[in-house]
Structure formats: structure tokens, C-alpha cells
Amino acid sequence: EKGNYRHFMQKEIFEQPTVVAQTLGSYLRQADNSVALPQIDFDLSAINRITIVACGTSYYAGMVAKYWFEQFARVPVDIDVASEFRYREPVLEDGGLSLFISQSGETADTLAALRHCKEAGQTIGVVVNVPTSSMAREADLLLPTHAGPEIGVASTKAFTCQLAVLAALAAHMAVKKGRMSREEEQEVVRHLLEAPACLNSALDHDDDIASMAHLIAPARDVLYLGRGPDYPLALEGALKLKEISYIHAEGYASGEMKHGPIALIDEDVPVIVLAPSGPLFEKTVSNMQEVRARGGKVVLISDEEGLEEAGEDCIATIQMPKVHPLIAPLVYAVPVQLLAYHVACVKGTDVDQPRNLAKSVTVE
Ligand code: M6R
Question: SIS domain location, by residue (predicted)?
């Protein structure tokens, strides 16, 4: 039931602090700030390569996770969309973990890729929201997200819960491989446990986002920019806007702008910049200035420090809490979801059941 919400998508966006806390609760032990994964029947420390396969929003969760697996566990990660994966004849060596991410656990392309990897002798890990799904049944390592049923076609809470699980897995793997000390593990766990409160502070800006939606609704094209682990969030923001508001949107790595897309910039193309303050901030801001110098209209999503430094001359800003870089992708998911949601409401589209889309894509 939708309760007091207008749409399931809206309800599911607002459930995130609760369901992310629930998910974290099943993977982290608060008593000693450690990661506690379910029983694993294989040696995680022997994994020498990770292959991530997924579709849509789940694929973007995988893209974020690649940064974490490489940074924490120093394990090389390949990542593909499922529909491309099998047909490029991937090299799957012994000792590899293939990781499939899916809300439904039934997406045909992802399931076919899973079976392919299984046949090739890979260890199969799955991150799914439906614990009784086909993917869950075929896994060697089942890592459920505890987001609860997701009804809106646009995936929201499943995404942030996937990120929570993947961060825990990356940290656990790093510990097992001797790449992360006990102190570092505690620190990672502490930061992850801050996520639900930070998600709440992000949700506090719902009204601000609703009141700026009319700036985006008339656009024909919208660009999203981000760097590092926030680059997949730019892709996710663009996907959310496309699927529910039917506005053409693209996400780019900020640094790629000058390699082509900047040619699109004029005063009719809003550019949404995701830039938490931190090591990558200055670089993103300089890409943002390139956009502004060409008459582009920028919406900057950053924290207080970032907005103070670079918020001037933007057509709108959205303030996020100051967060540790590890949880920024979870927290910055909220404004991109809300922005897409409110723009779709302004346009009057069918938010929960957008045209041409199904919740679960069970054909290849
Ligand atoms: O159930 P899955 O996570 O495997 O679904 C994958 C995609 O179909 C899904 O994320 C889709 O892109 C969503 N509509 C995005 O909001």
C-alpha cells in the first residue's frame, strides 16, 4: 500500500533510511564494528578476479562497487551489462568470482550470463532483492538485499541496498586478503553505519527539489556529470529521468565533457553536476566552469562547503550533508531519484508504470 504517498516510487525513495539500515544490520556487527557475511563455502581470499554482470540500475551499483573492490581488496574487476557479456567471449580464469546484481533475480540476460559463468567453472555470487528468485537458487554465495518488495518500475531502494551489501562484501574481502587492517575495517563499518542518518538528511531536501523541478521539466535534453564513484550516479540520474519523465538525459564522466558532449551545451540543456566536496571536487568544478562559460545552466548537488565554493551562478543548488566518500554514492542517489520523480510529476507521466517498461525484464 502507498499509505500517505502519491506513488510507490516516492514511498520507496523515503523508505531508504530504514531499509538500508536493515540491510546493513544483517551484514555488519555493531558490537565490534566488523563485517559479518553469511557462511561462505569457498575461500574468499583466493579470489583473484571479479566479474560483475547486471542490467540497468543494478549495473550502476556494480560500477560503484568496482571502485570499492579495487580500492579496498586490490582485486581487478571486470564489469559488463549482461546483454553484452556473453557475446564478447569473456575470458573466465580459474579462481574468479562472478557477481550478479539484480533486484528481481529474474532478469533474463543476467540469468543467462550467470548460467554461462557457472558452466565455465566460476564461483557464483548474487546480490538479489527477491530471495526466492532463480538467481538466488543458483548461487554459491547468496547476498540478499533487504529492501522489501519494490513496486515502482524505477528502481530506487533496491539500488541503495545493493550498494550497502557490495560495500560490506568489498570490505570483507579486503580483510580476508589481508589488505585491510582491523582498524580500517572498523572505520569502514562506522562510515557505513552513518548512511541511514545521512539518507534522512538528504530526504529533508525533498521540498527544495520539488520546487526546482519546473526548471528541468521543459528541457528536451539533460546532462548529468560526476567523477569517480559518483560517475555511475550521473548515469543512474540520467536513467531515472529518462525512464519516468521521458526527457532525453545522458550521464558523463565530468572529464569526458570536453571530448565531445560539450558541443551540445547551450542555455536549453540543463547540466546536473554531482560533486561532493573532497579530493575530486576541484576537477569537477573546473569541468562545470567549462559548461558555464558556454552558457550552460548548471544545477549543482554538493555539500555546504562545495556549494559555498562553487554554488554561485548555478540556476539551482541542492544541498547534501557532508559525508564520507564511501557513502556518497548512497546519499547522492536520493537527490537524483527525487529530481526525476518531481520532474515526472510536473510532466504528469505515469511514475510507477512508465510507458514501454516492465518491472522485470524476463526476455532476452
Ligand atoms: O531486476 P533487475 O535489477 O535485474 O533489473 C535490472 C533493470 O531492468 C532495472 O534496474 C531497470 O533498469 C530499472 N527500471 C531502472 O530503474
Answer: 40-179, 212-354
